């Protein structure tokens, strides 16, 4: 993965989408299918994405007449990235490949930190695992493409959320075991910001507050859990 400080093209997907090329915002094709096409190709870069896959991703349930709509979107993206060799779209008989030699994305930075933390935890290197999991949590600036209702974006959104919640769970357990309840409470609260239905986080916060003698706060956390659980029931 290309380092953030050296990347020519930087695409941020978390908490909203922004794209910079050579340090400048890419504004020429922010709207329409061109942006969605580029986002999809970035996520699936350096592998062939068939035209059928692109139609399903960009025009779900309805195929445009002919292939003009896809060609227009591809042309718009190529115009938008013109002037940089950091990324380019290659045309193949069955589809397209986005080649990238200087591209950084925020969601992949989060995933890389989670994976590094997982490997460190597997070899029982708690310090390294904690460092990587903290970095993953700090780098997670919101949901993946929150404005997109595309199924492929929703799938990636949930997978990223799962990975960050795993990192938070590990950090919570580490701090609880070390007796650092204040740090653990911070992680549990962040967990609820990502997943308001995480009942174990409410219960853990209630138990910690009880241990601190803050029974009123413990009651409030359990009350919040009851409200959320009731709203979720169907």
Task: Characterise the protein shown here.
Helix content is 58%, strand content 11%. The chain has nine helices and seven strands, in the order βββαβααβββαααααα. The strands form two sheets. Strands 3-2-1-7 form a four-stranded mixed beta sheet. Strands 4-6-5 form a three-stranded antiparallel beta sheet. Helix 5 (126-139) crosses helix 6 (151-177).
Question: Which descriptors would you attach to this protein?
Answer:
single chain, 234 residues, Serine Threonine Protein Phosphatase 5, Tetratricopeptide repeat, four-stranded mixed beta sheet, 7 strands, elongated, disordered N terminus
User: What is the percentage of strand-forming residues?
Assistant: 5-15%
Taken together, the total number of domains comes to 2
The fold-level CATH name of the largest domain is Serine Threonine Protein Phosphatase 5, Tetratricopeptide repeat
Helical coverage, percent range = 55-70%
Q: Biggest sheet: strands side by side, in what order? A: 3-2-1-7
Largest sheet: 4 strands, mixed
Number of beta-strand segments: 7
Termini separation (Å)? 43 Å
Number of helices: 9
Instruction: State the shape.
Output: elongated
């Amino acid at each position: 993965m290309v380092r953030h400080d050296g990347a020519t093209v930087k695409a941020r997907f978390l908490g909203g989408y922004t794209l910079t090329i050579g340090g400048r915002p890419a504004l020429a094709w922010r709207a329409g299918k061109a942006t969605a096409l580029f986002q999809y190709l970035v996520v699936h870069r350096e592998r062939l994405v068939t035209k059928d896959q692109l139609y399903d991703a960009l025009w779900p349930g309805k195929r445009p007449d002919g292939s003009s709509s896809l060609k227009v979107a591809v042309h718009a993206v190529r115009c938008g990235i013109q002037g940089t060799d950091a990324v380019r779209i290659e045309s193949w008989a069955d589809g397209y490949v986005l080649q990238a030699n200087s591209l950084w994305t925020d969601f992949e930075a989060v995933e890389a930190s989670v994976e590094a933390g997982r490997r460190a935890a597997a070899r029982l290197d708690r310090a390294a695992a904690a460092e990587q999991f903290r970095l993953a949590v700090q780098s997670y600036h919101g949901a993946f493409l929150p404005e997109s209702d595309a199924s492929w974006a929703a799938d990636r959104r949930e997978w990223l959320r799962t990975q960050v919640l795993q990192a938070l769970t590990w950090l919570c357990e580490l701090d609880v075991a070390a007796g650092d309840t204040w740090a653990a409470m911070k992680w549990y609260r962040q967990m609820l910001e990502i997943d308001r239905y995480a009942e174990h986080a409410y219960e853990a916060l209630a138990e910690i507050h009880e241990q601190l003698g803050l029974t009123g706060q413990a009651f409030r956390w359990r009350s919040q859990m009851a409200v959320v659980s009731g709203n979720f029931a169907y």
